[in-house]
Structures are given as C-alpha cells and as structure tokens.
DNA sequence: CCAATTTCAGAGTAACTGATATCG
DNA sequence: CCGATATCAGTTACTCTGAAATTG
C-alpha cells in the first residue's frame, strides 16, 4: 500500500502556491501592495460594485479578513466605496484612477510571470486544466 | 483587451490552495498538528534521513522556516534526528513510532478529502494534470 | 578561506475567532 | 426577531530576513 499517496495532489498545489506567492511578493513589494490587496484590486476592476461580503466569499476568506484589505485600500485611496442605493448597510467598492494606475504597473509583470510558469502547458490543454481547478473550487465551497 | 486575464491561473491556484488549507486545518486541529508539521512528517516517512536543508528545498521554504517545524516535531518526539556519518553538522531526521501513529490518524481523513475534491477529474486525466503542476514547480525553481 | 548547514532572534504577512452595531 | 452586513479587537499560523556558529 502506498502510504505516500494522500499527500500528493493537495501537497503539490500547496507547494506550487507557495512558490507563486513568493514571486508575487517580489513583484508587488516595490509597489507597496500585498498579494490580497493586488488581487482585490484586480477583481474590483473587472467587477465594480462588489461589497466586502461579496469579495470575501469570492476569495475564500472571512469577511473580517477582507475588511482589513479593503479598509487599507480605501485608506490609500486605491478604491472608494459608496452606499448601496437600496440596502443602506452595504458598501459597494470600486477602483479609483490611482488604483487603476497601480494595477497598470503590476499587471504586465504578473502576466509575464504567469506566462513563464505556464510555458510547458500546451494552449489546448489550458482551459481543461483551469476547468479542473474550478471543479475543485466548487467541491471546496460545498464543504463550507 | 481582457485586462482580467493576468489574474486568472495564478489567482485560481491561490484560491484553491486557500480552501484546501482551511479544510486541512480543520482535520489536523484535533491532532494538534499544523499543516507544515503534517506534510513534513509525511515526507519524512517516505524518505527517512533527510536533513533540515533538504526538507526546506523540497518544500519551497527557507531553512529557517523548516527549522522551526522540525524542532517542534523533535520536541514532541514525533521525529528524531541523528548525525550524518560523514558530515558532522548535518542532522538526518526520521519519523518515530509516535509520529507514525499520528500520521496514521491523519492520513485517511486527508485521503478522503483529496478524493472528494478530485472527484470531477477523470482518472485518466490525473497524471497529466499532476504533470502540469510539476512543470510549474520546475519553472518556479528556475526563478530562485 | 569558502560553501553548506544549523539555529537564534526579530519582523511581517495574512489569515483566524469573537463580539458589537446596524440595516431591511 | 432574524439574517446579512460591516467592523473593532485580539490572536494564531506561517514565512521571512539577518546574523552567528559549526563543519568539511
């Protein structure tokens, strides 16, 4: 019986992610952006108007964790928030011009990193591989 | 132009990993094992005799980080270390019986988790998908 | 002297739990 | 009263950088 098996796939994802995080930190440090700050900006640019609770759900973190990120981004005027027209408590966030400018600096470097890391995966295989990651995500959400 | 693209794959891996880590923590908490402690035990069981420096390289962390993990495992008598016969400074680690017993409790639960998360990926596709993750790992190592 | 290993000390990132207040 | 949201406060997990000692 191969007792090493259980560690394999999940362990490998952790390993890869740790390496990616290190590279991202290296790229983002000069811009004084943390990884969650960058990803939150990037998500908000594509989908403006998300609330803190929305962002937390999408990012697989607790609202308290996301709140810290979004509060810091607002403090630095990289995002701004406005009240939801119908539900007074909800604050909808969107990226400011300053935030967009910073994103513009970071994104190409991160795109280069991604391209370099994925170079061995044939183009034709990428959507399927991404699909599998999305399948895992869906299963993870079911466990919550 | 699709400005959201750069975030996709790397972001997705981070998302998946965050979900996995949360589930692993839930499984390991009652055993009072952290994730790095568990993975280090699991690696050492398959490859006894690795040094702290070896383990750090394999795990994509600095030797200082791994040292903290291995020292704690030794403190709890889940691993023990002995001097390398030829190179006096090097300490070779191996899992104790107590460590093996704890691993025996954790592994089946983690195997179940892995099986549940991978259920949508056809068996025939898994080796290829794991191969792609290994390709990414290799590229990450080149960047160090 | 040099390269690799171990390890002590301190710092920082990023997530967590718990609790409180507000809104619909 | 309830469910969702926002947020304050404190804590924990994990990794990092820097520096020192040891060994071959």
Describe the fold and architecture.
The structure is a homodimer of 144-residue chains. In chain A, strand 1 (79-83) and strand 2 form a beta hairpin. The mean pLDDT of chain A is 93. Chain A is globular and about 45 Å long. The longest helix of chain A has 21 residues, at 8-28. Chain A is mostly helical and 144 residues long. Chain A is built from six helices and two strands. Chain A starts with 7 loop residues before the first helix and ends with a helix.
SSE blueprint:
The structure is a homodimer of 144-residue chains.
Chain A: H1 8-28, H2 35-46, H3 52-59, H4 63-75, E1 79-83, E2 91-95, H5 97-117, H6 126-142
Antiparallel strand pairs in A: 1-2
Helix pairs in contact in A: 1-5, 2-4, 2-5, 3-4
The structure holds a DNA duplex (24 and 24 nucleotides).
> Proportion of β residues of chain A?
5-15%
How many runs of DSSP E, i.e. beta strands of chain A?
2
The biggest sheet of chain A amounts to:
2 strands, antiparallel
Low-confidence stretches of chain A: none
Give the chain pair forming the largest contact, with residue counts. Answer: A-B, 59 and 59 residues
The end-to-end span of chain A amounts to: 31 Å
Strand order of the largest sheet of chain A: 1-2
Written as H for each helix and E for each strand, in order along the chain, the element string of chain A is: HHHHEEHH
Give the overall shape of chain A, derived from the CA principal axes: globular
Can you give the helix content of chain A as a percent range? Answer: 55-70%
Structural class of chain A: mainly alpha
Task: Say what oligomer this is.
Answer: homodimer
State Rg of chain A: 18 Å
